Amino acid sequence: MKPAPFRYHRARDVEGATALLAELGDDAKVIAGGQSLVAMMNFRLARPAHLVDIGGLRELDHLGVGADGELRIGALTTHHTVETASPRELGAGFDVIRDAMAWIGHLPIRTRGTVGGSMAHGDATAEWCLLAVLLDAEFVARGPRGQRRIPAREFFFGYYTTALDPDEILVEIVFPRPAPHAALTEFAERRGDFAIVSAAVDLDTDGRTVNSGRVALGGVAAMPVRVPEAEAVLAAGGSFRDCAEAAADAVDPPGDANGSAHYRKHLIRTLVERACEEAMSR
To answer: Which top-level group of life is the source organism from (predicted)?
Structure first.
């Protein structure tokens, strides 16, 4: 299929892009790598009257560790850039982010798709969105009214809906602290497909004993979610299996063509325990 007619605009800088978005209003969409938006347009699931292309804004393509040890990723950085980042670029304790890239689609998608595009798209099964929720990422957005930082817990509103205003552009994602004992895993019918369920954990451990941990799930609600009930099990010294059971009991996943709610709960039990074991082994 082909998209509905639209007008194409190529931005020269961030300020020009946000001004154009403010002028065009709700009929405009930002495009970067286009790996999500173009597919939706081809199926007529999205029909923007205007596309504002920010793909040439090289200032938004960067990856590195800041002065305070935080990982800063420009919105136009591709998944493949993160996947192939050197230890110096990625910094110590962020291996979970690089390793998670292998779950994203196939190589052509990872080569063209951008970190900011995935975050702004807000897919409940997206690996980047799950990592942001798990690791308390902050989103730096810029618009006509200036720049603001949005914590991950306030960024995702529901299916494909985020806190970004129509005239704002996501310019950077900041992961504020290392997560040396974290892991992400998921299940899809075929490698590269969207995950039916994904699970990620971040353990606070001395290598032998788990003191506490964070547990997050994707594909079980309208957006990625933390699971306090499972985290409480880890804080109380419970087993990884008990943590996984608590995670499955705490959520009410949907049933659809990809699997029933019962099936998704079964996947949660398997994936959370697996993620805990992988995180512990780092």
So the answer is: Bacteria
The CATH fold of domain 7-53: 3.30.43
CA distance from start to end of the chain: 45
Query: Which tokens go with 227?
Result: 């699971």
Q: What are phi and psi of 18, to 5 degrees?
A: -70, -35
Distance (Å, whole) CA 61 – CA 159: 27
Q: What is the pLDDT of residues 233-279, one digit of tens each?
A: 999 999 999 999 999 999 999 999 989 999 999 999 999 999 999 99
Tens-digit pLDDT profile for residues 210-226? 999 999 999 999 999 99
Q: For domain 58-175, give the CATH number.
A: 3.30.465.10
With contact defined as beta carbons under 8 Å apart, do 173 and 151 qualify? no
The token pair at 2 is 């082909």
CATH topology of domain 182-281: Enolase-like; domain 1 (3.30.390)
What are 71's strand-pairing partners?
65, 175
CA separation for the pair 112, 83 (Å, rounded): 13
**CB-based contact 112:104 (threshold 8 Å):** no
Phi–psi pair at 51, nearest 5 degrees: -115, 130
